Each structure stands twice: as structure tokens, then as C-alpha cells.
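User: What would this chain look like folded?
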Amino acid sequence: MRTADLIELLACDVRATPPGVVNRRLLAALIAGGAVTLAIVALGLHCQPLLVAAQQPWFWMKAAYTGLLTLAGAVLVKRLSVPGARAGAAPRLAALVILAMLALGAGQILSATPGARLALWLGHTWKVCSPLILLLALPIYAGLVAAIRRLAPTRPALAGTAAGFTAGTLAATLYGLHCPEQAPAFVATWYTLGIAAATALGAITGRRLLRW
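Assistant: Here's the prediction, encoded as C-alpha cells.
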């Protein structure tokens, strides 16, 4: 069969994508992957006393940071899952949120006494925080990859990067239900490193997993 005939045959078989199918598939992937991660946090790591934690500003500081990044990541994943769409403002929003948290953390370190700075930065769980966020991101990333493969990403590496970032930010949000750390300096460093690791995983594997 000639190339032109093959193209014509494929064009004749094009089916319109039902409205909202992209949103539904990606939302279902986030819910399914997030449910698995939440179960791991609740049953394996155990949540801190949430009624007590929710009364503290630091709890909402962490939730706002990772929640805003998750929102930006979800928008970016949606745009990169279909042909022809640009990334839009989502990467800039994510960058601004990260810079704001880094500035907040740096301000806390600079305003603290020299003897307290290391404790604020490392907290009690710095060795496990970032690796746990990466591990908790895996179910969410797997769900997103499965959903994106059923769509039409034309830039698989970028789509994988966005999926890894979104998985990492949602995992960090759910991990916050367990994590007792309170310092912005800790969150700015170790939460962000865990998200960065998940993003790198998506960048490395997305090129192959999301290829047509």
C-alpha cells in the first residue's frame, strides 16, 4: 500500500473525540492513583491527628504549596495530552509558587539564630521525606500514563515530565497528611526535592512510555 493511500485510509477512520473525554480520563487517573497513595499513607505511614494539625498555620502552608502545584500540573498534563495545545501559563504559575516557598524557607533560615538553622532545615525526617514522596508518586504516575496513552500526546517527553510533576505534587499533598514537619525551610527543600525526583522520572520514562 502506498503512503498516500494509508494516510487517506486513516483519515477516513477518524472519529470525533467526545466532549470532556480528556478531562474525565485524566481526572479518573488522578482519583484512582491518589486513592492508592492515600491508602498507603493512611494504612502504612499513618496520618497525624488531622483535627489538631488543621488548626495550625503550617498545615495549611504545606497544603497550599503542594495543592497549587498539583493544580498547575493537572492543567499542564491536560494541555500536553492532546495535539497542538501549548503549555500555557501553568509552568510559570508552578515556578512562581516554588520560588515563593523557597523565599519563605530562606527567610525563615536567615531570621533564625545560627544554632537553630540546621534543625529547621533538616527537621526530623529529612532522610526519608523526598524518597517517600517519590515512591508515593508511582501509583499516580502509572494512572496518568495509562490515561495519556489513550489520548494523543505529540510531545511524549514533555507529557511524561508533566505527568511526573503532577504525580509528585499530589503525592506530596497526601504525604502531608502524615508528615509532622512544620518549618517552611524543610518543605521548601525536601518536599521540592521529592517532587523534582518524580518530575525527573516522568521526563526519563515518558519519552518511551507515551510514544505512539
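DSSP finds nine helices and no strands in the chain. If you want, I can go into more detail on any region.
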